[in-house]
Amino acid sequence: MMNFVDPTTREKKRMYIGYLTKKPIPRIDDKFSCYNGTQKSNFSLTPWDKFHMNYSQEEINELSNYLQNIFGYKTIVKKNSDIHNENKGESYIIDNSDCQSFLPVYFNSNEFSKIRRFQDKLWGLLCVSLEFKMNKETDDMYYILPFYKSLDQEDSKINVDWYYINYILQEKANPDEITVADWIATVDYHLQNNQKDIISPTKSFEDNYNAVRDTFEILKKDPSFKEEYKTRNISQENKSYISDTLHNTYFRTLYNRRLYILKDFHEELTMDDEFTVKNYNKDEEPYQISYKNYIMKNYSDIMENYEYKYPQFSLVCGKVFSLLKNFDYHSEKELEVQRRQKENKSKKEGTGFKAWFIPELCHIFHLPTYWLKFLQYIPILTYKLKAFCYISEFRYVIGIKPLSIINLTYAATSKNSDIIMGNRHEQLEMLGDTILKYLTTIYYYNRYPEKDESFLTSIRMKNVSNENLIQLTNYYQWNRFFLQKKFSINYFHPPNISIIEGMRIRECSNAMHENKPIADFFESIIGACFIEGKTIAQGIQICQLFLSRSKLIIPIPFNYKPTIDEYVREPGYDYDEIVKKICKFLNHTYSKDSTLYTVLHLISLATPTMRREYQRLEYLGDAVIDLITINYFFNRFKGANPKELTQFKHLSVQNQVFADIIYNFGLIECLPFPPSTKKEIDKFIEMKSVHKDFPFHKNIADLFEVFVGAIHIDNGYQFEKTNEELVDFLTKHIFQHSAQNQSIERFEVINEIIEILSVIGRKYSHLEGFLRNPKSVYQ
């Protein structure tokens, strides 16, 4: 994780953070980021095997077999599940064998006792109470271990830092037992001898600590030094200098083991001065007592035989301190607001509450700088790790093997929870929404071959509505895996007290709009499934698997092809030549049984049956074009936010854009329209020749969607093939212009109107007759 110089041995080392758990931690191939304030750090997860570090391969194999027999190796890695391997020919379904097989890391009872004690001390340090006790009955574990690797030795291996576990967070604040009073006396000694350069406020704490330690080790053996400082009063000038060397230093009291941060020295107060004790019990009167006697009264078992060495030293001011609360996980703006609030509060309250301490009862808390950096990442890393384990469980519940933990984590992390991952969540949600539209479109198109476009649109909208997706997500209890709250120290709990519980969204209410993020969560999972595919075809297949798992669609063959009973050719038209021209126009492979022939007959015959089939093809082509468009911009602009992707889509899939393409390529004149339709189109062409921006009728734009629908059927509903044929054409004639279009700002107005309509829809959704689904209002 970070490089440092061992303060004792001066050896260069690299420090790592280790976690010991009862559950196998999922392997995350990609690096992940954590923020401390505005500072970003990247981390990666790597498995560590104690035996591979210390044993030969023969010993490892022997021990592995032993552990398998004793612990039940396979029973450790298996989980009970109602998910069955429905398709053994494909490797998409998770079965028990997909769980990580791992060699349990064995620690002997003595080692494990030290590790457990280290957890108590570590979390006690972070959470103020140094006698913090972990709940050992829970199954979480997540024990934190310091690791190191020597950089001075070429063949050094990563090992547990037992020195740190045994000594750094022991009962005493520091191995040398240096108190604040010892520090004061030592620095004052140097000042009397004009040796300011030895211990200075400009030096690091480690350098000053080592200097004080070395000097005090000599001075404490000198009887004259002890006698002098029994009665010595430190001058105000020296007090100020010494205070600067100790400012914001941590110390731990001898009697209650609490951690404080040192702020200042009192000018006059000593341990024999009195203060007023106000009892919480109103029946008892306040009383006066000296600081020394107060400690004796409340901690007599510890202080009974204690002999003071520095009775004349002034008291020091300390503030109750929690490292956990001190670490900042905020933006610069948030930090600035907090600073101003503290300043205003300080001005209103004057000096505020201060606690005064006898300096020789305060042990300097020697915590190296590199460990302070390490500690500040423990809460967020522990949260991230538990989140990864939690999402690993979610992956198993869904039962789709190709889904990686990192992409599923993106899908399950809202923008409120994590700005960086949440932005990716919104991108996946937009991609998933379009894929959901595409897959349900071809599903209903094939399942209901006799139904018209109005029925297909209605049933699709009903099943992909936010309300239905919310119901599905809640029914399968997937909503409990949706991380919607931002990580905050305020509700962070150490391991063995659930972290994730505070992060889960509340149980769903009846108000659909309050739970819309859950519907977005469902769609983002679809997006995550799609990008896991090594090819577009595989991505679509994984998405289909997820939708069939959610029972939104059921597996059916996609092989419906529209036909008509009797082909009637309009005189004067060469149908073969027209179909070949359309194929060349759209980069499609020509065949004599192409659905495009059916399209030409549908155009020429204006009967209700023909019109129904024509609109069904338009319904299909619209979904195909949407997915080609979103897939292009999703991969072309990987850093684009969802709003920008939406704007690009709006610019690309306009009816007028499609109509202009049909007109500019000269397809209108060669299509076999009925005489009435032909006459109407001729008027549009005449107006277009006079006014270049004159808009065509929507029916002309619909032709483009019908052609795409027919091509997709020719390709056997293989989206990858259709995309390959059309994407270059669309890129050249639409997408490039959309990306460069300078009028993109006007689509921000459209988005704002959509948001307003959504608000109105939510506000008046209780009124009878009002459309409950905002999507229908947008259309």
Write up what this structure looks like:
By secondary structure, the chain is α+β, with helices and mostly antiparallel strands. The protein folds into four domains: 2-170, no CATH class; 180-365, paz domain (Beta Complex); 399-549, Ribonuclease III domain (Ribonuclease iii, N-terminal Endonuclease Domain, Chain A); 575-740, Ribonuclease iii, N-terminal Endonuclease Domain, Chain A (Orthogonal Bundle), CATH 1.10.1520.10. 52% of the residues lie in helices and 8% in strands. It has 29 helices and 13 strands. The strands form four sheets. A five-stranded antiparallel beta sheet has the order 12-11-8-7-13. Residues 71-103, 328-334, 347-352, 497-513 and 774-778 have low confidence and may be disordered. One of its GO terms (molecular function) is ribonuclease III activity.
**Quick one: biggest sheet?**
5 strands, antiparallel
| CATH class category label of the largest domain | Mainly Beta
Radius of gyration, taken over Cα atoms and rounded to an integer in Å: 36 Å
Specify the helix fraction band.
40-55%
Oligomerization: single chain
Alpha plus pi helix count: 29
**Structural class by secondary-structure content:** alpha+beta
Provide mean pLDDT, rounded: 77
Organism: Piromyces finnis
Pfam family, one: Ribonuclease_3
Domain RNase III: 391-534, 579-716
Protein name: Ribonuclease III
Compile the SSE list and pairings.
Blueprint (H helix, E strand, L loop, with lengths): L1 E4 L6 E9 L11 E5 L2 E5 L6 H5 L2 H21 L31 H18 L16 E8 L8 E2 L1 H7 L11 H13 L12 H15 L3 H9 L4 H11 L3 E4 L5 E7 L8 E4 L9 E4 H8 L1 H4 L12 E5 L2 H4 L5 H18 L5 E3 L4 E3 L4 H30 L6 H8 L6 H29 L5 H11 L2 H10 L40 H17 L3 H14 L25 H11 L9 H10 L3 H29 L5 H11 L2 H10 L10 H16 L7 H17 L4 H22 L4 H19 L10 H5 L1
Antiparallel strand pairs: 1-2, 2-5, 3-4, 5-6, 7-8, 7-13, 8-11, 9-10, 11-12
Helix pairs in contact: 5-6, 5-8, 13-14, 14-15, 14-18, 15-16, 15-18, 15-22, 17-18, 18-19, 21-22, 22-23, 22-26, 22-27, 23-27, 24-26
